[in-house]
Design brief:
By secondary structure, the chain is mostly helical. Helix content is 87%, strand content 0%. The longest helix is centred in the last third of the chain and has 62 residues.
């Protein structure tokens, strides 16, 4: 493992210093999906919200379709029980969205500061990785040290 670690650290350090470019294909797929949803308008946003809700709240979906809909049919409440359920589950999301929006202003100021620090931290980390990678390569591959 030590023989592999040297070259890997050198490559990662070079990538951190942007001496080499690593092409990761996942970002292109996300952009294509975002463009598709943008062109779909309201229906795309609704579908994205439904997928998001089902992926993060499977228990909520199971309660809705497994318990609430049969109860609603049994008692003939029509839209009252599902509407109350929807408001009850949506209200915390609304509160958190407002809190996040208010906090986004202060986060953006902090993010600007962190971005300046991140550039230097990445450069320092890249130099350290290259140095340690050279040391490991000289010690375990070339047995010089």
């Amino acid at each position: 493992m030590n023989k592999l670690l040297g070259p890997i650290l050198i490559l990662v350090g070079m990538a951190l210093l942007e001496l080499i470019q690593l092409n990761v294909g996942g970002a292109g797929m996300a952009l294509k999906m975002q463009k598709r949803i943008d062109t779909s308008g309201l229906w795309g946003a609704g579908l994205l919200g439904a997928v998001f809700a089902l992926s993060f709240c499977p228990v909520s979906a199971a309660l809705f379709f497994g318990s609430l809909i049969p109860l609603s049919i049994k008692y003939g409440s029509g839209m009252i029980l599902p509407g109350l359920y929807g408001m009850g589950t949506g209200l915390p999301v609304l509160v958190f969205a407002i809190l996040i929006a208010q906090g986004a202003r202060s986060v953006s100021r902090i993010f600007d500061r962190i971005t300046r620090i991140e550039v230097w931290a990445r450069r320092i980390t890249g130099v350290i990785f290259i140095g340690v990678g050279i040391y490991y390569s000289l010690s375990y591959i070339f047995v010089v040290l």
